[in-house]
Amino acid sequence: MPENKVNPFNITDAQLTIDLDGADPAEGFSEHVSSVIATPTSSTSTWKGMKPSAVFQFVGSSVWGLALAFAQDWSATGLSRFLFEHEGEDAVFTFAPETGGQGFSVVATIVPGAYGGAVDATGEATSAMPVKGRPTLIDSVPAIPAS
Q1: Is the Cα dihedral 97, 100, 106, 111 positive or negative?
Q2: For residue 83, is it within any domain?
Q3: Is 5 domain-assigned?
Q4: Predicted TM-score of the model (pTM)
Q5: What does the pLDDT read at residue 146?
Q6: Which among 5, 46, 63, 105 would be 20 to 30 A from 27, CA to CA?
Q7: What angle do CA 110, 97, 12 make, to 5 degrees?
C-alpha cells in the first residue's frame, strides 16, 4: 500500500465568521482571535469479566466544543462585546486556517469571555462553547469581502 502524503497547514492568514441568523453576510472576526479550536470528547466504558481475556471497551459518540482565544475589545464592533450581547444564542461559526481554503463550520451556543486582566498586558480572554452536533467540513470557505 502506498504511503499517504501529508499536507499540513500553517495558521497565518485565517478567517473566522459568526452568523447569528443565517443571513448573509456573516460578521468577520478574523483579526480578533488568536486561536480557534474545535475539540471532540468521547466517553469510554469498560466491562471486565472473570477471565483476563474478558475485557471489553466501548467508545461513546463524540461531543464537540469550540474554544476561542481573543483580544478583549469591548467597542461596538468588538468580539468581546458581541459574545456578551449574544450570550446563550446559537450561531454558525465558520473557520478557515487559510483564507479561502478548507475549513469547518459548527453551530455553537455563545458563551462570553472574561473582562479585565493584568497590568502592562494586553487584555485577552477565552470562551469555551458547546457545539450542537459535529463540525461540517467545507472544502473551500469563501473569503470575507473587504469592508
Answers
A1: positive
A2: yes
A3: no
A4: 0.88
A5: 66
A6: 63
A7: 115
Sheet holding 124-138, edge to edge: 27-28, 15-19, 90-96, 103-109, 124-138, 63-71, 33-41
Is cis: bond before 97, omega within 30 of 0?
A: no
Question: Which domain, by its residues, includes 57?
Answer: 15-41+52-138
Q: What is the DSSP letter of 83?
A: H
Q: What is the pLDDT of residue 107?
A: 96
pLDDT at 4: 93
> Has residue 67 been placed in a domain?
yes
For 59-113, the pLDDT digits (tens) are: 999 999 999 999 999 999 999 999 999 999 999 999 999 888 899 999 999 999 9
Q: Residue 142 has which C-alpha cell?
A: 469563501
Q: Where are the beta strands (DSSP E) in 72-138?
A: 90-96, 103-109, 124-138
Is 6 part of any domain? Answer: no
Average pLDDT over residues 1-15: 89
Scan for cell 471497551, then name that residue: 57
The pLDDT, as a whole number, for residue 23 is: 65
The structural domain count of the chain equals: 1
**Residue 29: which residues within 8 A CB-CB, separation 6 or more?**
16, 17, 18, 70, 79, 82
Side-chain half-sphere exposure of 15, counting CA atoms within 13 A: 20
